[in-house]
Fold this sequence. Notes:
The structure holds two protein chains of two kinds. By secondary structure, chain A is an alpha+beta fold. Chain A has helices spanning about 10-35, 40-50, 90-100, 105-115, 130-135, 160-165, 185-190, 190-195, 235-245, 285-295, 315-325, 360-365, 370-375, 380-390, 410-420, 425-430, 440-455, 480-495, 500-505, 550-570, and strands spanning about 50-55, 65, 70-85, 120-125, 145-155, 170, 180-185, 200-205, 210-215, 230, 255-260, 265-270, 340-345, 345-350, 515-520, 525-535, 540-545. Chain B has helices at about 10-30, 35-55, 60-80, 100-120, 125-145, 150-165, 170-185, 190-205, 210-230, 235-245, 255-265, 280, 295-325, 330-355, 375-390; strands spanning about 90-95, 95-100. In chain B, a hairpin with a 2-residue loop joins strand 1 (about 90-95) and strand 2. Chain B is globular.
Amino acid sequence: MKAKPSGGTSWPHASVVTLFLVLFSLLVVRLFHLQLTRGEYYSTLAARNRIRSVAVPAPRGVIMDRFGVVLADNEPAFTVSVIHSEFDPENTPLLAGLLSMPGETMDERISAAAESRFRAIVIRDDMDVVAVSPVADNLYRLPGVIVSVTPRRRYRLGSSFCHLIGYVSLADSAARYHGELSGITGLERIMNLRLSGSPGFIREVVDAFGRVVDTFGDSPEASPVPGENISLTVDAVLQTHADSVMATTGHPGGAVVLDWSTGELLCLSSVPSFDPNLFIGGISSRDWNAIIENPQKPLLNRAWGTAYPPASTYKIVSSAWLLEQGLTNPRLLPDPCYGSVSYGGNVFRCWAVHGRLNLEEALAVSCDSYFYRTCQTGNMDDLARISRSMGLGERLTAVLPGEAAGAVPDRHMMNSLYGAGGWGQGNLLNLVIGQGELLITPLQMAVVSGLVAARGEMPPLSLVIGDEPCGVRLAPRVSLATWEEIDRGLRSAVTARNGTLHRSMGGSAFPIRAKSGTAETHTGEDHAWVCGYLPHPATIAFAVFVENGGSGGAVAGPLALSIMEKAVERLYPDARW
Amino acid sequence: MPDGDRTDYRMIGAIAILLVLGLLSVYSAVFGGALFYRQLAVVMVGLVVLLLAFNIPLRIVEEVSPLVYPLVAVLLLLTVFFGRGPAGRWLIIGPINLQASEFAKAALIIISARLLPGLKTGAVRWSGPVFIGGVTLLVVLTAMQPDLGTAVAMGLIVLGMVYWAGFGFRWMFLFVSPLLAALSSLGFVWWLLFTALLCVVLHIDRAPGWKWVALTVGNTLVAALTPMAWNLLMPYQKARLTTFLNPALDPQGAGWNIIQSQVAVGSGRFYGQGFLQGAQKALAYLPARHTDFIFSVYAEEFGFVGSVLLLGLYATLIWRILLAARKSINPFSSILAAGVAFYFIIHVFVNIGMAMGIMPVTGLPLPMMTYGGSHIIMEMLMVGLALNAARNWRSW
């Protein structure tokens, strides 16, 4: 550059040259840093390329009950992983032996690891110290094998919450890193995203024996985001108490307790149950067969997952329907109960001879004849409508895993079952006493009881503290007078000397309102039901069901009383009436 | 004038050595495989293109340049719809894979050089809006390839050319104002500041009324619509954009490549591991080693000495092109050569910076080195034009 051409272009030229020189100097400075200042470091790294990317599992959220009792948490467990690029395939049999795993399984996992060659792929997880120590002792001759500590899920109360909380297992989705836990059933599955958090990654520098000596300095690194802790509205003490009480019968069954002033679910007991801890590391076939071959089917959840004929407990709904439709009134005395009613050529039996009764007394002694006589001019669709408005025939919540909807027959359903004209008003007589095609879960029955207690204004169900309610909002169009009349009937069932629950609950200090039910089945003994509630201030409603347990009042009544007393002691210890 | 009307042999020397080093690196990166011979063929074709560009009268290039525009726009559009290959950026025609965005870069430089002088004198009506609209369309089509990195590079090259053409900072501010408006939507205060600055610039410029209205209303619209457009994007599209802006957010993907690349560069140390001796490369740890990260292969094998030599060769090339740009008395030649210089500055800095972890990961190739046909042929074309301008600096 000796001469400058004419024209005023030298300023742009100078500034562009300056910019260009600055940028290139930056590159040279960076080169100097990487190749000369840090060159030795990088070349030792490159010598065996001993940086590797390891996933750091996020601790899964803890699940607690309403008082902070831990139901599901994490404890350390050992994981053996392989980084394929550093692993010598000739060591496969050795590793299989140390882990006492079958050769084929090991080959399978090693070839799975080959798909992401530079990442640690889990070969076996969930091991205790004893199981992992043979590998740990031989790590020096197993390059590319890593032993790490990972959190493992533990269900503290074992079987008590197996249906509600469910269990976790290794995630097999491609979107998750190998070894990540994922909920398989229950809330673990439904709330998996909230519980699981997101894993982090660290870059480790390891020595020739696979031991971690450092984390790689100026590398991007993501720390794990822990999963969310979840507090359930359930009381663990009440639940375990209910479990043990329910187990005394030796029959399968379910018990639901809820707070009708808040909609909170307090107890969701189902017997028999299983230990979810068995499933975590993959259940053994012996344990699995024991569960699956148990005639009482422990995998079934009787609190909300199965629906049964509700029998006389359904008379709560029938009464509301009769009163609202004007088919009866509190003072009406239909023809006396002679032990059966003839209708359309069929004989409809009552379980005893009750004589002349009003509605309160009919509810107290659970007289079927009263309902046979009063319902005859009613419309099945109206009964179905009022049942649905109380949450029957539909799922009540969005979160309870595998919730059953049950069934509420209406004209449409009867037509599709029996064909138009294949059924008649006689079916309605069966329905009003809770027999026939009706199917209802214990949870739904507890909600019906809660609605009576709250005079129709019960908040939607909730299961997780701090969350929006998870239940549907129910607004039955039933007048206050009707609720009051049913309330009187349910009170009499306990207090009246001939009330169906007088023997089992009459001695209680609490002003319990309750209704028993004894459902006839085609298979063995009757199903026993009882549902009811306490008035303000101990705002508790409940339903107890015993499969093939026998008489509702005699079998389910004492169980319900025991659960109820525990619930008051736990939640409303100062309640006085 | 020491190199008066003669051929610029220093530029030719630099480009020749760069081509040889590029071929060596590709040979090393693909272990002498078939891709190397393909690259050799590309360089041969490129030499023919260079000779043609060197000898064609620049006046013809200037006059033909508007025809290039629709051609490139159609190529880009076709790629948007029928793009194949790893990132959907290739147009596959028989045995040839065209990367339309590479053609777009060269075309943009030639067309800008054609339009900018007229814009400066204001001789042609509507030349300003036509220029800005034309540039924006090409940049947007390129971003839709999808090739955001190239689109940004194109914007920067044009900005440099605008500056070279003698437009002041105020004009450049107006030129990039839509982009600034989009950024200002981050916060109300930023938007206020931006709008105030815009008004000040328009006032000092004594802008006519229509310009006031167009720029203030247009930019306010851009600022208002940007957050909405962002919310319309799918989560994975947002993730792509944020990963582009910050690859550390995706440590398993782009971040991993950068670390391995840094290890490769660093392990070259002073003299390098020697040709064909790179350990990182040999173990296949280095991703995209014959394309995006070709510099890492080179730096590992030839070390600090070799890398500084390579930067020196690029510096010589750029220096000679800038000289050609400076001395050309024909504005078309001058601005064209400047555009070529900006092309090389940006590509060398971004690609080598990326390999050393100081720039984000983009698909910008390293000129003359990265494996691939389209960009090498276009670079040879541009160098040919620059050589042409250097030799014929006197011709008007």
